[in-house]
Amino acid sequence: MTNKFRTLDDVDVKGKRVLLRVDLNVPMENGRVTDATRLERVAPTITEIADKGGKVILLAHFGRPKGRDAKDSLRAVAEALAKVVKKPVAFAEDCIGEPAAKAVADLKDGDILCLENTRFHKEEEKNDPGFVAELAKLGDIWVNDAFSAAHRAHASTEGLGHKLPAYAGRTMQAELDALEKALGSPTKPVIAIIGGAKVSTKIDLLENLVTKVDALVIGGGMANTFLHAQGVAVGKSLAEKDLAPTALRIMEKAEAANCAIILPVDATVAYHFAANAPSHAYGLDAIPTDGMILDVGPQSIARVHAAIDDAATLVWNGPLGAFEMQPFDRGTVAAAKHAAERTKAKKLISIAGGGDTVAALNQAHVAGDFTYVSTAGGAFLEWMEGKPLPGVEVLRSK
Ligand SMILES: Nc1ncnc2c1ncn2[C@@H]1O[C@H](COP(=O)(O)OP(=O)(O)OP(=O)(O)O)[C@@H](O)[C@H]1O
Ligand SMILES: O=C(O)[C@H](O)COP(=O)(O)O
After folding, report:
1. Is the Cβ–Cβ distance between 167 and 395 less than 8 Å?
2. Fold of 185-385
3. Of the four listed, 45, 197, 316, 350, which is most buried by Cβ atoms within 10 Å?
4. Is the pLDDT of residue 227 over 90?
5. Active-site annotation holds for 398
């Protein structure tokens, strides 16, 4: 896929109001950013535009808010971003209307402003033309540096590309170039590790993914859904039980495509969703009805290691357990360290991506040992499937 689109090399941003779409959807705990990878990755684009005299107006979503809860505000993230870019970052209480217009009007060349969470307006995810028009009033050009949200055809990730002159940011360019290089024609056997909690938005991707990889290791809440589909009593574990038919269909498709599905064979179960909650490893036939599977068990870890040993290329999105809470990080950390060792031994090309997946690799202190770490999760998987990403397609030279 040629990445022919306009970049910052094709525009003089001096004096221009630059609507810069970035992904600031970062892991947070008690109002603090716990992994700043996504901020660090977009910092060069922000700094470049500011240093060239552009007025940087940041657009971003955060979480999946139902209303305007303070926990979903970008204010704390903007403060963290200021530390990363080592420049002041102003903040506007809304991304459209008077608060945004006034904050933009106050900007001088080289200033940086972060607008409030675009998803506080339901029109964002609807890619509502009126909302796009309101956003477009605030800028002269649109730069998309949010590869990790490029699979979303939303107002700020795609709609603006039809209203304003559109350019790719440096992170967008780097992600596409790196993924093309590593996975354009991957060395086989290729295995994927898919975990995490976003079962409903990711499970459909697996249907295609199983036709692209030789083995699919499934962990996290995703695995609980597949285990339930196979009749395993998963107790109070995170699972999308209504997606059991989808899971069974994916397993059938995998068999037809000669893709081995590697599910957990044991589990670490706790009774409370909390760090250091008492836990125990159980076989799948003995999961306590009032227990929650929070990590894969020791036998499953060994199977993941074996799958990694059989692979030449690994792609990974989604942790194998609730890694933020020890000891439920064991499966994820063990797999990450094993993949890192194989990569350092030049026996594996390892690509990982996703907001929490990157955080997990950093928690295991191995992110730097992987061949490439993408900021994207869902977008990375959809890119892998060869699906056109709306936020990328809109950048292609018209
Ligand atoms: N067994 C489990 N039970 C409950 N939560 C789990 C379990 N396994 C993983 N998780 C949770 O999954 C979350 C991460 O899933 P997610 O799919 O968002 O990954 P990601 O890397 O952030 O991908 P993306 O960038 O696409 O969001 C973590 O918060 C982790 O606690
Ligand atoms: O974390 C991500 O994968 C991106 O920020 C997209 O978030 P979403 O899955 O809530 O659209």
Report:
1. yes
2. Rossmann fold (3.40.50)
3. 316
4. yes
5. no
pLDDT at 92: 98
CB of 139 within 6 A of ligand 2: the answer is no
* Interatomic CA distance for residues 375 and 198, integer angstroms: 16
Is 198 an active-site residue? yes
The question of whether 321 is a catalytic residue gets the answer no
- Name the band, by pLDDT with cuts 50, 70 and 90, for residue 378: confident
Distance 74 CA to ligand 2 centre (A): 14
The reply to whether ipTM tops 0.90 is: yes
Question: What integer best gives the mean pLDDT of the chain?
Answer: 95
Residues 357 and 156: beta-carbon distance below 8 Å? no
Cβ of 390 below 6 Å from ligand 2: no
64 ligand 2 Cβ < 6 A: yes
| 55 has catalytic annotation | no
pLDDT higher for 248 or 396? Answer: 248
Contacts of 353 (CB under 8 A, 6+ apart): 148, 315, 316, 317, 373, 374, 375, 376, 377, 379, 380
Query: Domain 8-172 belongs to what topology?
Result: Rossmann fold (3.40.50)
Residues 166-193: pLDDT tens digits? 999 999 999 998 888 878 889 999 999 9
pTM surpassing 0.90? no
Choosing from 321, 355, 377, 391, the catalytic residue is 355
Same CATH fold assignment for domains 8-172 and 185-385: yes
Structural domain boundaries in the chain: 8-172, 185-385
